[in-house]
Amino acid sequence: MSALSITIRSARPADVRAINQLVEPLTHRNILVAKDLVAYYEAVQEFLVAEDEHGELVGCGALHVMWEDLAEVRTLAVAESHRGAGVGHRMLLALLARALQLGLQRVFCLTFEVDFFRRHGFREMSEQVDPEIFNQLLRSADEGVAEFLDLARVKPNTLGNTRMIIDLEDAVIVDRDGVQPDRLRGAPEDLKGA
Protein backbone atom coordinates (compact mmCIF):
# COMPACT_ATOMS: atom_id res chain seq x y z
CA MET A 1 0.00 0.00 0.00
CA SER A 2 1.46 3.31 -1.06
CA ALA A 3 0.94 6.57 0.81
CA LEU A 4 -0.16 8.04 -2.52
CA SER A 5 -3.45 6.13 -2.37
CA ILE A 6 -4.14 7.63 1.07
CA THR A 7 -6.30 10.71 1.64
CA ILE A 8 -5.54 12.98 4.58
CA ARG A 9 -8.58 14.83 5.92
CA SER A 10 -9.98 16.41 9.06
CA ALA A 11 -11.48 13.92 11.49
CA ARG A 12 -15.21 13.77 12.12
CA PRO A 13 -17.05 12.52 15.20
CA ALA A 14 -17.94 9.37 13.25
CA ASP A 15 -14.18 8.61 13.06
CA VAL A 16 -13.58 8.55 16.82
CA ARG A 17 -14.09 4.81 17.34
CA ALA A 18 -11.69 4.04 14.48
CA ILE A 19 -9.15 6.49 15.94
CA ASN A 20 -9.44 4.67 19.26
CA GLN A 21 -8.87 1.33 17.49
CA LEU A 22 -5.71 2.69 15.82
CA VAL A 23 -4.34 4.02 19.10
CA GLU A 24 -5.32 1.17 21.44
CA PRO A 25 -2.60 -1.34 20.43
CA LEU A 26 0.03 1.36 21.01
CA THR A 27 -1.31 2.07 24.49
CA HIS A 28 -0.88 -1.59 25.43
CA ARG A 29 2.80 -1.28 24.47
CA ASN A 30 3.11 1.99 26.48
CA ILE A 31 3.94 3.96 23.34
CA LEU A 32 0.86 6.20 23.57
CA VAL A 33 -1.18 7.21 26.60
CA ALA A 34 -4.55 5.48 26.96
CA LYS A 35 -7.53 7.84 26.91
CA ASP A 36 -11.23 7.42 27.46
CA LEU A 37 -13.36 7.54 24.32
CA VAL A 38 -14.89 10.82 25.48
CA ALA A 39 -11.44 12.46 25.33
CA TYR A 40 -11.24 11.69 21.60
CA TYR A 41 -14.73 13.11 21.01
CA GLU A 42 -13.78 16.27 22.91
CA ALA A 43 -10.63 16.69 20.81
CA VAL A 44 -11.92 15.47 17.42
CA GLN A 45 -11.41 18.94 15.89
CA GLU A 46 -7.66 18.60 16.58
CA PHE A 47 -7.35 15.35 14.59
CA LEU A 48 -6.48 14.57 11.01
CA VAL A 49 -6.98 11.05 9.69
CA ALA A 50 -5.49 9.02 6.85
CA GLU A 51 -8.09 7.10 4.87
CA ASP A 52 -7.35 4.42 2.29
CA GLU A 53 -9.20 3.95 -1.01
CA HIS A 54 -11.72 1.68 0.74
CA GLY A 55 -12.63 4.33 3.33
CA GLU A 56 -10.74 2.58 6.15
CA LEU A 57 -8.83 4.79 8.58
CA VAL A 58 -5.17 3.77 8.56
CA GLY A 59 -3.64 6.69 10.44
CA CYS A 60 -4.40 9.56 12.75
CA GLY A 61 -2.71 12.46 14.47
CA ALA A 62 -3.67 15.57 16.39
CA LEU A 63 -2.36 19.11 16.67
CA HIS A 64 -3.04 20.55 20.13
CA VAL A 65 -2.48 24.32 20.38
CA MET A 66 -0.87 25.25 23.69
CA TRP A 67 0.06 28.91 23.29
CA GLU A 68 -0.03 31.67 20.68
CA ASP A 69 3.04 30.26 18.92
CA LEU A 70 3.23 26.69 20.21
CA ALA A 71 1.43 23.39 19.59
CA GLU A 72 1.98 19.71 20.23
CA VAL A 73 1.70 16.83 17.78
CA ARG A 74 -0.26 14.17 19.67
CA THR A 75 -1.54 10.68 19.10
CA LEU A 76 0.27 10.09 15.80
CA ALA A 77 -0.57 6.48 14.95
CA VAL A 78 -0.49 4.35 11.81
CA ALA A 79 -2.14 0.95 11.35
CA GLU A 80 0.38 -1.90 11.53
CA SER A 81 -0.57 -2.91 7.97
CA HIS A 82 0.45 0.51 6.65
CA ARG A 83 3.64 1.20 8.62
CA GLY A 84 6.65 1.92 6.45
CA ALA A 85 4.52 3.09 3.52
CA GLY A 86 4.89 6.84 4.17
CA VAL A 87 1.55 7.33 5.93
CA GLY A 88 3.16 8.69 9.10
CA HIS A 89 5.28 11.05 6.99
CA ARG A 90 2.22 12.43 5.22
CA MET A 91 0.28 12.70 8.47
CA LEU A 92 3.07 14.67 10.14
CA LEU A 93 3.50 16.96 7.12
CA ALA A 94 -0.23 17.67 7.17
CA LEU A 95 -0.16 18.45 10.90
CA LEU A 96 2.82 20.79 10.45
CA ALA A 97 1.09 22.46 7.50
CA ARG A 98 -1.96 22.99 9.72
CA ALA A 99 0.32 24.57 12.36
CA LEU A 100 1.61 26.99 9.72
CA GLN A 101 -1.96 27.85 8.68
CA LEU A 102 -2.69 28.70 12.31
CA GLY A 103 0.33 31.02 12.44
CA LEU A 104 2.25 28.86 14.90
CA GLN A 105 6.03 29.04 15.07
CA ARG A 106 6.95 25.93 17.06
CA VAL A 107 5.60 22.41 17.40
CA PHE A 108 6.77 19.85 19.92
CA CYS A 109 6.15 16.18 20.56
CA LEU A 110 6.79 13.55 23.22
CA THR A 111 8.01 10.51 21.32
CA PHE A 112 9.88 7.23 21.18
CA GLU A 113 10.31 7.67 17.40
CA VAL A 114 13.25 10.06 17.71
CA ASP A 115 14.75 9.24 14.29
CA PHE A 116 11.40 9.72 12.52
CA PHE A 117 10.86 13.15 14.05
CA ARG A 118 14.52 14.12 13.56
CA ARG A 119 14.14 13.41 9.81
CA HIS A 120 11.27 15.90 9.88
CA GLY A 121 13.37 18.67 11.41
CA PHE A 122 12.60 18.13 15.10
CA ARG A 123 15.41 18.35 17.65
CA GLU A 124 15.61 17.18 21.24
CA MET A 125 14.50 19.85 23.71
CA SER A 126 16.67 21.10 26.50
CA GLU A 127 15.74 24.76 26.83
CA GLN A 128 13.16 26.02 29.28
CA VAL A 129 10.04 27.96 28.39
CA ASP A 130 9.98 31.75 28.81
CA PRO A 131 8.97 32.47 32.46
CA GLU A 132 5.84 34.46 31.49
CA ILE A 133 4.60 31.68 29.21
CA PHE A 134 5.55 29.08 31.83
CA ASN A 135 3.34 30.83 34.41
CA GLN A 136 0.40 30.95 31.99
CA LEU A 137 0.78 27.32 30.91
CA LEU A 138 1.09 26.28 34.54
CA ARG A 139 -2.65 27.01 34.87
CA SER A 140 -3.52 24.29 32.35
CA ALA A 141 -4.90 21.00 33.69
CA ASP A 142 -3.67 19.21 30.54
CA GLU A 143 -1.10 16.49 31.28
CA GLY A 144 0.62 17.11 27.93
CA VAL A 145 1.27 20.69 29.00
CA ALA A 146 2.67 19.44 32.31
CA GLU A 147 5.04 17.08 30.50
CA PHE A 148 6.11 19.84 28.11
CA LEU A 149 6.92 22.08 31.08
CA ASP A 150 8.77 19.17 32.70
CA LEU A 151 6.76 19.56 35.90
CA ALA A 152 7.67 17.36 38.85
CA ARG A 153 4.08 16.08 39.18
CA VAL A 154 4.44 14.17 35.90
CA LYS A 155 7.93 12.92 36.61
CA PRO A 156 9.42 10.47 36.36
CA ASN A 157 8.40 10.34 32.73
CA THR A 158 6.10 7.33 32.90
CA LEU A 159 6.53 6.48 29.24
CA GLY A 160 10.25 7.32 29.01
CA ASN A 161 9.79 9.25 25.78
CA THR A 162 11.83 12.14 24.39
CA ARG A 163 10.74 15.78 24.18
CA MET A 164 11.41 17.18 20.71
CA ILE A 165 10.60 20.50 19.05
CA ILE A 166 10.70 22.09 15.60
CA ASP A 167 10.89 25.74 14.59
CA LEU A 168 8.61 25.89 11.55
CA GLU A 169 10.49 28.81 9.98
CA ASP A 170 13.60 26.65 9.64
CA ALA A 171 11.92 23.31 8.97
CA VAL A 172 13.52 21.10 6.34
CA ILE A 173 12.11 17.61 5.80
CA VAL A 174 14.57 14.76 5.28
CA ASP A 175 13.42 11.42 3.87
CA ARG A 176 14.71 7.99 4.95
CA ASP A 177 17.66 8.20 2.56
CA GLY A 178 18.83 11.52 4.00
CA VAL A 179 17.57 13.48 0.99
CA GLN A 180 16.06 16.89 1.66
CA PRO A 181 13.24 16.93 -0.92
CA ASP A 182 11.74 20.23 0.15
CA ARG A 183 11.29 22.75 2.87
CA LEU A 184 8.07 22.43 4.85
CA ARG A 185 6.66 25.58 3.23
CA GLY A 186 6.86 23.64 -0.02
CA ALA A 187 4.75 20.75 1.29
CA PRO A 188 2.54 19.11 -1.32
CA GLU A 189 -0.62 21.09 -2.07
CA ASP A 190 -2.93 18.25 -1.02
CA LEU A 191 -1.54 18.50 2.50
CA LYS A 192 -1.83 22.25 2.89
CA GLY A 193 -5.60 22.22 3.03
CA ALA A 194 -5.89 19.23 5.36
From TrEMBL:
User: Keywords, A to Z?
Assistant: Acyltransferase, Transferase
Listed under GO cellular component are: cytoplasm
Quote the protein name from its UniProt record. Answer: N-acetylglutamate synthase
Classification via Gene3D superfamilies: 3.40.630.30
Q: Per its UniProt record, what PROSITE patterns does this chain match?
A: GNAT
Q: List each copy of the N-acetyltransferase domain by range.
A: 6-139
| CDD domains (UniProt xref) | NAT_SF (cd04301)
Domain of life of the organism in this record?
Answer: Bacteria
Claim: Acyltransferase is one of the keywords in the record: yes
